[in-house]
Design goal:
Layout (H helix, E strand, L loop, with lengths): L2 E5 L12 H5 L1 H4 L5 E3 L5 E3 L9 H5 L5 E5 L8 E4 L6 E3 L8 E6 L6 H8 L16 H7 L4 H10 L5 E4 L13 H5 L4 H9 L15 H14 L4 E5 L7 H15 L3 E5 L3 H7 L2 E8 L3 E4 L3 E2 H10 L1 E2 L4 E2 L20 E5 L2 E5 L2 E5 L2 E4 L2 E6 L6 H9 L15 E4 L11 H8 L7 H11 L15 H14 L4 E5 L7 H18 L2 E5 L3 H7 L2 E7 L7 E9 H10 L5 E3 L6 E3 L5 H9 L9
Parallel strand pairs: 6-12, 7-10, 7-11, 8-9, 9-10, 18-25, 20-23, 20-24, 21-22, 22-23
Antiparallel strand pairs: 1-4, 2-3, 5-6, 11-12, 11-13, 14-15, 16-19, 17-18, 24-25, 26-27
Helix pairs in contact: 5-6, 8-9, 10-11, 15-16, 17-18
Bound molecules: adenosine-5'-diphosphate (ADP) (2 copies) and magnesium ion (2 copies).
One magnesium ion binds next to helix 13.
């Protein structure tokens, strides 16, 4: 079996190390040029000479090397390769002429690369990274398949595509109004702005938008374009649960008349949107393989099972399991954390939260639209923001993972762990034995925190928060930047840790699968303007059933359960079940018989 050697370019700092990779390589020591200095001053690792001993991986002080066996796909199936020791993508999804195709898979397996290729933004080099690539060559390679026609049309400029890119943070640098960014004052841009609920912000400058609003603007701009194929790369990031469900409806409608591809980690959303999907599997930043298209239901079920039968690929050890019934209310158990009513008055926002209690071992979700005060509430409990009225609970030790993470110091996760090891309030053993492996942080322990990807930083922050011995864990949007797999692993971990420690947790999040797996109850936040001033109101904890009903009533969306995996699935609008459930006011769990 062949080998793949990957050098993670942004982690490799050849001037700050002793070239340990080369110095300790047994093949180099035998006099062969297995690792040499390349033209950029960084090491080049020969995939033919490498014996796969793994020594360089462990010696590299920056965790910048990966050595893997080649995937179960042949060299000839490489669509694109970023350099000799770079990432490679095997196979491509089939672009639809009508209807929605989903793309589902871990971070760093080439989903965005595939999307950019299909959109005509990146010419696939077919593995020949050092030769110029062309659409004609790509078309010739896929002779006799749907991709041939697709690439030919791209080559001739006959296929119009519109792309909502994955990263939208930079849009806040655009010095134009929202309407200008979306496409002007014509009918299409106006309709698109209305469809995403951003019409009232049309004349505002782009830099004044929040993250969620930037995402909506980017989606509107894509909708406003006249295209044959639309691609949405992670449309739900920064969107709250309510907007996610609304956008789902908008994209669903687009798919009835056009070809649409959606890359998405929110499984409830993708499941509802797409008719079929390709799973991506592989190794982060090393390689990605694209599966055959599957009907949407089996794509998600396969993903949850962790085993792709067609291709005999196991990508997870254990299946993800849901339960169809709401968790049993903890009525008989004693309260562990009790908080009275809390209020916060900002110059132009007023938050009121009713009092509530959390019982031992309980994880409670905090749900609701953006800008309703979820973060402010969590901060008041964490002692990071003093309430205007009311007092946070006393005698409760809290551990807090903020919504926005900024790593500024060059320390690594290992440095942080070492420093905290003698702190009695810190469970270093659990961190090493349980949290680091469960959150797959082993490979990045020595990477400086500012060099971590968004998802890695998020997992590191959650691991550190959960390692602090506390009665109340406060996690603000822990699923942001994570792929579906990481979300589900984290949901189970939070739940298990809180149960085992007899602690409690409040978790603000927008991902329905994450909340369903992690939570025993919900607090629900709603907009609550008073005297013309925006405000928010938080209530609960409620049972999962009551909380979900309160949340979903507002968006008129109902869920059913998949018979095989028991995962929640969004009902088609106005289907028999949808109408029945709405009539009974049971939006999330099966109506009691
Ligand atoms: P995904 O969207 O599945 O997270 P991407 O397609 O963005 O994956 O990237 C897959 C891998 O390809 C990344 O981990 C990165 O290592 C590599 N990569 C992406 N873009 C480039 C590029 N322009 N140059 C070199 N490597 C890249
Ligand atoms: P959520 O987490 O539900 O999105 P936040 O608690 O972050 O909501 O914010 C609720 C509202 O409070 C927002 O409109 C925000 O502008 C306002 N707000 C939050 N923090 C401050 C602050 N430090 N000063 C003034 N206003 C603030
Ligand atoms: Mg991507
Ligand atoms: Mg928030």
């Amino acid at each position: 079996m062949g080998r793949i050697a990957i050098l993670l370019d942004d982690r490799c700092h050849p001037k700050e190390c002793q070239w340990e990779c080369q110095a300790y390589c047994p093949v180099v020591r035998m006099g062969q040029e297995c690792i040499v200095e390349g033209p950029t001053g960084k090491p080049v690792i020969s995939e033919t000479l490498c014996i796969g001993c793994g020594i360089c991986i462990h010696k590299c002080p920056f965790d910048a090397i990966k050595i893997l066996n080649t995937p179960q796909a042949s060299e000839s199936e490489i669509v694109h390769r970023y350099g000799y020791n770079g990432f490679r993508l095997y196979r491509l999804p089939v672009p639809p002429t009508r209807g929605i195709v989903g793309i589902l898979g871990p971070n760093g397996t080439g989903k965005s690369t595939a999307a950019r290729i299909l959109a005509g933004l990146e010419v696939p080099n077919l593995g020949n990274y050092d030769a110029p690539a062309s659409w004609e060559r790509a078309a010739a390679k896929y002779r006799g398949t749907a991709l041939q026609a697709h690439f030919q049309r791209l080559a001739r400029g006959e296929l119009r595509t519109a792309v909502k890119p994955q990263y939208i943070d930079r849009l806040s640098d655009e010095r134009v109004t929202v309407a200008e960014y979306v496409g002007g004052t014509g009918a299409r841009p106006r309709t698109a702005l209305e469809a995403v609920g951003l019409a009232s912000r049309a004349d505002d400058p782009m830099p004044s938008l929040s993250g969620g609003e930037l995402q909506l603007a980017a989606i509107a701009r894509t909708l406003a374009a006249e295209a044959d194929l639309y691609l949405f790369d992670e449309p739900s990031s920064y969107l709250d649960i309510v907007h996610r469900l609304e956008i789902a409806r908008v994209l669903h409608r687009l798919g009835t008349e056009h070809g649409v591809i959606v890359v998405e980690h929110d499984l409830a959303l993708l499941d509802y949107l797409a008719e079929k999907a390709h799973l991506f599997y592989g190794e982060e930043a090393a390689f990605g393989v694209v599966s055959h298209p599957m009907p949407m239901r089996s794509a998600v079920n396969t993903y949850l099972t962790g085993y792709l039968r067609d291709e005999n690929i196991r990508f997870r050890e254990t299946p993800v399991q849901f339960t169809a019934h709401p968790p049993k209310p903890a009525a008989l158990r004693a309260s562990r954390v009790v908080f009275g009513p809390l209020e916060k008055q900002f110059p132009s926002f007023r938050l009121r939260v009713g009092g509530g209690a959390l019982t031992k071992g309980e994880t409670v979700g905090v749900v609701g639209p953006n800008a309703t005060g979820k973060t402010t509430f969590v901060k008041m409990l964490a002692g990071a923001e003093p309430p205007t009225a009311g007092t946070p609970p006393e005698g409760v030790t809290v551990s807090y993972k903020p919504q926005y993470l900024h790593a500024t110091q060059p320390a690594s996760l290992r440095d942080r762990i070492t420093r905290l090891a003698n702190d009695p309030g810190f469970d270093a053993a659990a961190l090493e034995r349980e949290l680091v492996p469960a959150l797959r942080l082993d490979g990045v322990l020595d990477v400086a925190l500012p060099d971590l990807s968004g998802g890695e930083l998020q997992r590191a922050a959650v691991a550190l928060a959960l390692a602090r011995r506390s009665t109340l864990y406060l996690l603000d949007e822990p699923s942001a930047y994570l792929d579906s797999d990481e979300r589900m692993a984290m949901a189970r971990l939070v739940r298990r840790r809180v149960e085992r420690e007899g602690a409690t947790a409040l978790v603000a999040d927008h991902d329905v699968y994450f909340l369903d797996l992690a939570c025993d109850g919900l607090m629900v936040f709603q907009p609550n303007p008073s005297d013309g001033v925006p405000g928010g109101r938080g209530e609960g904890p409620f049972t999962m059933r009551e909380g979900m009903n309160r949340l979903l009533r507002g968006v008129e969306i109902t869920f059913r359960r998949d018979p095989e995996t028991l995962r929640p699935r969004i009902n088609q609008e106005n289907s028999v079940l949808d109408r029945e459930q709405r009539a009974q006011g049971e939006y999330y769990y099966e109506p009691a018989a």
